[in-house]
Structures are given as C-alpha cells and as structure tokens.
Amino acid sequence: MTTHVRLAVIIVLCVIMVAVAYGAKAESSTNFARGFERQITHNVTRKVLTNTGVWSPDGEWIVYDTRGNTQRGGFDGSTIEIVNIRTSEVREIHHSRNGANCGVATFHPKRNEVIFIQGPENPSHDWQYCSYHRHGVIATISPPRLINLDACDITYPFTPGALRGGTHVHVWDAVGDWVSSTYEDHVLASAKEHSIGDDVNLRNVAVSIPNHEVLVANDHLRNQNGKYFSVLVTRTTARPRPGSDEILKAYEEAWIGTNGYFRPNGALQRRALAFQGDVVTETAKLITEVFVVDIPEDLTQAGDGPLAGTLSRMPFPPKGCTQRRLTFTSNRKYPGIQGPRHWLRSAPDGSRIAFMSNHADDPDRDPAAQLFVANTAAGATEKQLTTADNRASRARPEWSPDGTRIVFTEGDEKKYGAYNMDHLAFVPADGSTAPARMKAVEDLDRGVSGLRVSSDGKSVNALVTDDRSVYPVSITRAAVVRLMNPPVVVSSLNTGGGHTVLLSGDDTKPTEIYAMEGNALRQLTRQNGALLAELQIAQTEEVNFKSKDGTEVHGLLTYPLGYVKGARVPLLLRIHGGPNGQDQHSFSVERQVFAANGYAVLVVNYRGSSGRGQKYSRSIFADWGHYEVEDLEAGVDHVIQMGVADPDRLGVGGWSYGGILTDYMIATDPRFKGATSGAGTAFTVAFYGTDQYIIQYDYEIGPPWNPKAWETYQKISYPFLHADRIKTPTLFLGGERDFNVPVQGGQQMYQALRSLGVDTQLIIYPNENHGITRPSYIRDRYERYLAWYDRYVKKNPAPAKNVAETGTR
User: Fold this and answer.
1) What is the pLDDT of residues 441-500, one digit of tens each?
2) Cβ(662)–Cβ(718) under 8 Å?
3) Most Cβ neighbours (<10 Å): which of 114, 439, 588, 707?
4) What's the start-to-end Cα distance of the chain, in Å?
C-alpha cells in the first residue's frame, strides 16, 4: 500500500521518526492521533563525513560515521561505515558496544585503516562521554582488527606513554606514521581542589607514535592499554604571565609540510605542528596567536618533568620539544588572529603557514577576513597577502601543490554584505602581487564556493549557485567548464584517487552520497530508500513568469498528491529567508508535508535572492518590501492563471526574511486567508543594536538619527506602522533565544493584530535560536502550520478540544 505522508521529518540522510496515516484523503485535517507512528530506524543513522581523510588510499572507498544532530554537539553515533564508490557496497567496520559511541573517522593515507573517536563503554554517572573521557581507535579493514590508539592510566603512579584523559580529532601526518590530536585531562579535571602552582585541566595537543605498545596496570576499570606511545607536545599554564608566550590553551593543530620544513641553518625539522594558542597581553586581554612546536624523533625521553605527569601536574612534553610563538599581534589596536575560523594551512614544503584573520581597526563592525602567511622558521613576521579592498570569506584557503599560490574566496564591499556573492581570487604566496580575480569566473556573474585545487595544480574545482541549481565546475585561467548540467543540486565535493563523490538530492529524493562519473551521478547510499518506497512523493516543476515591471522571475511549484489537471486547489506561497539564498531543486520536507495535505506550494526566487546575478540580488538595496512583494504577487497570479490555484484559498508564510516578507504581503494584499510568520521583524528601527545586523543598518539604510535614514526605517516598517491594513489571520512564531532576529518582532506584530481584533497567535519555542532544531518542536511547528492553514485557508472546522484542554466536559 502506498502511503500519504501526514508528517515526515527527514533530516539530511537521517530518518528519525515518521508519522503516517494510511489511506487518508489529501484534504483531511492532519492529526497525529488519527494515524500512527512507526519507528523506521532504531538509532540515528545520519552519515557524517569528516573534513579530511574520507578517501581510502586506493580511492575506492569513503568512510563516514553515523552521528545524529552534530550541530547540537551530540556524540551519539554507533557505527563507522565505508561505502564503495563503484559498487555501492556498504561495510560496517565498527559497531560500538555497551553504550559507547563513536565518530569523526578518517582513513590512513597509505593503509586500509581508519582512525576514529570512541567514547566510554558502560558509561556511568561519573564517567560519561566528554572532552576527557574518550580515546582513539584504529580499525584495520582487512583482516578486521581493532586497536586502542592511546593508553589510559588514571591511577598513580602513572605510566609513561599513557595519557590520563581524552583525545579528540585524530589526524595522521602526511606519510601516516604519527597521529596528532587535542587532549584534556581527567585527573586534573576531577581534582576537588588546586593549590598554587598546580596545573588545571586545559586543552593541549598530543602526539601518538607507533611501535611502542603501552601496557598499564589493571587497577582501575577505566585504565586501558594502547598500541601507540602518546605524549603531550604542548605546555599550557592556568595563569599565563601578561605579555609572555605562555599559553592557556592549545588547539586546532596542523602538521607542517609533507616532510616537515627546513630550518634557517638548512637542517630538516622532520616533525612539527602549527597550532593556535591563547595568550594574555600586557593589558590582560586574552588573544589567540599562531604557534609552532618542533617535535623530536624520540618521544620517550622525559623533558622538564615526567611524561606521565603527577597528581597535580599535566603530563610534560618530551625532551627536545620546542614550543614557540609565530605571530605577534599584541601591539595592534585589535590584537590576536580574530574573526572567522582561522584555518591554519601549511604549504606543501612546510615553509609557510597560511591563515585567515581579521585585523581591521574595528573587527566588530567589519566582519571580513584577510589572508596572512607566516614563515615557519623562527624570527619571521606574518605577512598580509590581501589588501584593504579584499574581503576574504570564512572558507578555508587552499595552497597550490607547488606552494606558489593560494586560492580563496572573497565577498563584496561592506554595504552590499546582505547580498554578498563570493568570488574566486588567487594570490602569489610570496605576496609579490596583489590578489586577483579570474575573469572567466567573474563573467559567470554567479557565486562560487567549496574551492579545491586539483592535484596537478592546473585547475580549481568549485560549486556554482545558479538559478535553482548548484553544480560543480572546473576552473582554469582560460575557462570555466561546467561538470554537470542543471537542474541539479550538489554539495560537499570531495576528490581522491581519481574519483569524485558528493552529496546530492532532488525535488523527490533526500540527500544521499553519489559518485560523479563524467557529467552523471551514480547513487552510492540509499539511507531513505525503504521509507521512500512506502510513500507517495509530490511532483515539482519549474515556473517562470514576469513581474510587474517586466523582470523575469523564477520559482518552483509543488503539486498536491493526487492532483488532477485542471482542478483548482488551495495554494500556499512559502517564502525563503535570506534574502540572499534560493529555493532550489533539493528535497524539501516542508513542501512535501503541505502537498501531502492537499496544498499546492509555490516558492519564488524573488529579487534579492542569489543565483541570478549581482544586479538581481542588489535590486532591493534599502528598498525592502517593494520588488520582492511585486515578484511574489506575480508568482501567485501566475499559478492562478495556470488554473492550479484557487484564488479564494490562498495562504502565505515564511521564516526569517521569509517571515518579514510574509508581513509585507499581508499588509499589501488582503486576499491571503491565512498566514504564518516566523522570526520576522515589525518596527525595524527597534532592532538597531539588538540583532546581528548593525552593519547592514548603518551601511545600507543609515543610522536612525540621519533624517533620510529615518524616513527609510518608517517606509520599510509599513506592516507594523500600517498594521490596520492587515485582515489576514496570522500565526507568529519564534525561538526564545534567537539573537539573529529576536522574537520581539513577532511579539510586536502579534500585539498589533490583537489590538485590531484580527485572529492571531504567538508561539515561542523555549531555548531555541534562529533555527528550530529540537525534533519535538519541528513536529509541533508543522502541526501548527497545518492546523492554521486548514482552519483559515481550507475553512475546515477546528477540531474539538478534549477535556484536558478545556477543563470541562
């Protein structure tokens, strides 16, 4: 039997729970009590790729873990799996036992081995997974074998080569001999009190080396042996002296070079790591700087203290470890490597470290980054490769294989930040000339992302966002070659061993892992296959139409399940946020839920959206609620003219800028019978200084005390200042802790409609931010959407309340 989806929450390759109603009619009111819930999977099975080392050495397999909601910091994966890119065969190479979880898996660069993080087995109230209760595990694929990377010994006297806590994010060096990780210490974290001079638990960098098995006493349940000899190579202190090179925390390490680097005297330093360290300036400000630690070949010799540490001291680095500071920014007005994630990236020969940082005079008001390189050798000063005119993005920079160039993406000038389109730029690594954009890419007039330099350095692969599609391209100095034809939406492009894999889906299939072969895709995983086989999926088609002034506008129309051509049905206009984004050919749970409940769904890439070029995106600059409204209105008119939409049963809704535009729509057009507005604004000037858009306010509109700007604030606040125009019953929603668009906008609009006697409700989700992520809240929001639209758009009678809701019989 085919199922009509009543409400399915599918989160990118992860089926959590679906509620279905067999044989229900599309027009019937949704109610979970009328169907039943069936658990599709018994654990979270989302596929998570680490940002490095996903390919097997022969390029035939990719590795992933099965953690759930990583955005919330969860570590709940139970398996490590590999998938063959030729045959789509999936192998489970590790299944955690006894309550232990696992994740963050990477392949060895030369052997069929995978390293990953494992949490504690049989977790207890005093030994749960945390930063100091985890360790590394290596799984050999053939023959199958598991070994503990790092030994753990938490009973005194401690064992040299064993650690006393947890390691995290294990990274092989270029040849696959040594492994780096970050580390935190159980012994010090568990200490009930500290004396002056004692160490405290602080993050450090650890290194593990093979062929030195470490055996520890079996006198504690949590002690364990390890096949690798592990030490700390950094030294931290709880009270760094102001102005010194002492560090409070060491983290985000990166191996230097494919074979180390050469010192100024010509000697090869075979092993070295760059890392970020937090120091205290002379003015007592905590800042982050780049550090290097030179590591000796022999890690078994004690240095300034015992390798295993003491009850009150952290394990000491081995003899010959030299930790030194690479950047010195404390004399700047805004010191430290600030701004985006700093992405330490070593040149292939190890001679330089590239990183992004924000050294603007006022980084809080100028979020763009600049690209720097620092010579690995001691005594050098970091060099800025970009100029004041470059506004580098938060994406990581990429070295060319020969180490002569760096490619990165940069955005537009500050005042157009809300409509930013990323551009490809490259710069000589020696800074001999300023960064330059590539004409062939600029001629596209489209944003690029996900840069990856080819192994021969002759081309750069990237993703292009273009009119409802996102497709891969190959870029050379002379041309941009499209690798796939639209309509297609891909992401997470990853190349290795002559093969390319990526994530993709379409209007009818959720995202899965695919191999790219020529200009075609071959599906490797079918995580949602069993579910989709039971469901009817609504069909989506492109729609193109002219706006009021003749501008060509594009969108997508999803038909309700069982749609009969010529029938007029209720239409929901659902508006994307941004505005700098696009509705595209990817699977939309929201559109499918509405279509399964009898609605046609229209989404429109109104002016201000991405994917249609710079002029199209910037056309709403300081003129919100004008051209977008005309484009959205034209889209609704078009679907009515197609004979699909019933003009007497129209609904509208959106979230973030989609919620803002919902308010503009209902303040412009009374024909919408019901609306849902999430995370929107009301009196725009009231958000000045309270949300995260201060730069946009100042540079696009102007400060409120500027008379011309004040006129603009009033003009773009017309849904609130002219709320008396609104006749549409509206449901307002938001997250309690939304610092992006605070919930006060929904509160103001709700109170305005209450004062005007227009039907309205306000829903605030506790502890949620701008996006609603808790599964029970996601479900609740869909239920509320459907109930509101059913009541006001379809004119279905509201379901009778039960005794518990009314308190009466």
Assistant:
1) 999 999 999 999 988 999 999 999 999 999 999 999 889 999 999 999 999 888 887 888
2) no
3) 114
4) 39
pLDDT of residue 807: 39
* Ranges in the chain, pLDDT < 70: 1-46, 69-74, 339-342, 379-380, 798-809
Torsion region of 146: left, alpha or beta (phi above 0 gives left; psi -120 to 50 gives alpha): beta
Rounded Cα–Cα distance for residues 198 and 617 (Å): 57
Contacts of 85 (CB under 8 A, 6+ apart): 59, 60, 61, 62, 499, 501, 515, 524
pLDDT of residue 621: 98
* Residue pointed to by tokens 């990583």: 70
Q: Directed axis angle between helix 627-641 and helix 657-668, to 10°?
A: 70
Structure tokens at 100: 């232990």
Contact 586, 507 (CB under 8 A): yes
614 φ, ψ (degrees, to nearest 5): -65, -45
Q: How many CB atoms neighbour CB 530 within 10 A?
A: 11
The answer to whether 341 and 394 are in contact (CB under 8 A) is: yes
Q: Which backbone phi and psi does 153 adopt, to 5 degrees? A: -140, 110
List, in order, residues 6 or more apart from 32 with CB less than 8 Å away.
Answer: 6, 7, 19, 783
d(CA 7, CA 786) in angstroms, rounded, equals: 10
Q: For residue 570, give every residue at least 6 positions away whose Cβ sits within 8 Å of its Cβ, in sequence order, or none.
A: 598, 599, 600, 645, 646, 649, 650, 651, 789, 793, 794
Residue 342, both tokens:
């700093």
List C-alpha distances in Å: 30 to 3, 598, 792. 14, 10, 14
Are 621 and 416 contacting, i.e. CB atoms less than 8 angstroms apart?
yes
d(CA 50, CA 181): 14
Residue 395's pLDDT is: 82
Structure tokens at 467: 């009119």
Q: How many CB atoms lie within 10 A of CB 598?
A: 25
Distance of CA 174 to the CA centre of its chain: 27
